[in-house]
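Weekend entry, working from home. Most of the wet-lab plans are on hold until the incubator is repaired, so I used the time to fold the two sequences that have been sitting in the queue since the last round of cloning. Logging both here for the record. First:
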Amino acid sequence: MAQAIRGLGITVKGVVQGVGFRPFVYRLAKKLGLKGYVKNTGEGVYIAIYGPQELLDSFQKGLFEEAPPLAKIEELEKEPLNGPPPPFFTVLESASGKGSTKIPPDVSTCKACLKEIFDPKDRRYRYPFTNCTDCGPRFTVIEDLPYDRDKTTLRHFQMCPTCLAEYSNPLDRRFHAEPNACPE
């Protein structure tokens, strides 16, 4: 007998923007076979998630146990959702709202980016501004919430096709890494 599908709306507050939280939520939902969406808001990150209660419980547990290293969840607000689930899980465009989410600090270059910087065969070899969702500038580039590239000092710099492909792929570690850049 099939388990009943339930919907849950979750607002995650704390340091959850600019730290790879939306890609993490996407991967966690896909791994568990859940449907819904995630988006940045002025308050933090909003998740609409649908699935059997057992998987929703696993999802909520995973939010805390598997969160990106720079994320700091301070509060979850939950509400039941009615209606049918969407056909898949996706990352939606950010929604504006009152700005109460916390801005993460600038973070030193992570091991994965350092490896690229020192690899002569990598396209980011010796490129000092290499970053991903686990490292790089945040506080010094943000101008407004929600944290999206068009609200940073980098909005004037167009990404090359390769950087844009990384930025657009929910499975890439540079998915929505707002300061994503390369020598191009």
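Second, folded right after the first finished:
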Amino acid sequence: MTFQKKPSYFFPAEWERHEATWLGWPHNRTDWPGKMSVIPWVYGEMAKKISERELVHILVQSPAHATRARTVLERAHVNIKNIRFHRFPTNRGWTRDFGPIFVKENNKRTVIADFKFTAWARYPGWQKDNAVAAHAGKKLGIPVVPVLYKGHRVVLEGGGIDVNGSGTLITTEECLLHPHVQVRNPGFTKTDYENVFHQYLGASHTIWLGNGIAGDDTHGHVDDLCRFVNKNTVVLVQEKNADDANYRALQENKERLQGACLENGSRLTVVPMPMPAPLWHAGRRLPASYANFYISNSAVIVPTFNDPNDRIALGILGELFHDRPVVGIHAVDLVWGLGTLHCLTQQQCA
């Protein structure tokens, strides 16, 4: 696709150096039914690893909420010097999707690309989450740029995209183009999205996958499916069991990627990664996936599920990341909330 003007902003890759990571401390009990007492300890483990080499901005609801969070962090032996609490009201804790998306303006100053958040076009009660980017910009003194297209705010969640930091973005048709289910931007076409991605995220090329994984209530987020690990390589989860609900969609996405190229026309390297055995809660399939890892300055943290494939997934990522360790974090409880590590984090570029 040819664009008429140069982009104004650029979204760095996740493995590039961070100033900080943003987390929303858990408070909405409906996110983790029956598991709320253990979830803060998973956050503590995440924060411990991330805070080794970057700031961690934590959103809390009240002074008492901050005190409870601090108690967990101290008991988890987190580097408290790198923790910053912010009293920003939120509806939920999925910071990847409603948190500020930090981009570079002409590769220089950092600004926030303020996409609209509507709870995945699925749930009521999203207005507090939608205001977080503005709160963050005011607190940090960073400009907040509303993402507009044809005069309208554009709805997009951070988990719906992934970038290689060189001009290629990857997303799914299920998430952004389905005409009837969880429609973010009614009437939007591929061309419309690609214009937005180019102007606000610096993506000159978009790779469109098909459907996401079973159990994903976001309706196709790519961060449970396929992730860049460097500028020319992605990992793609694959299912060996032909009777599994994920098998056909993951095979189709593999076929799409085999013919895909990058912004410079070169071929994309695709590394297959296994899926864990299906996990269920109250008769519902959970979106357990090793692709929901997060790349911090100090480590790549990867969700694990007490599954034999945990070791295989960690080994694959360990072979791909040579500049920081790959660390597993137990996510069997966390995935009851229908998301894991990447869904809870949002990076702030340096």
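Plan for Monday: verify the second prediction. The chain has a mean pLDDT of 97.
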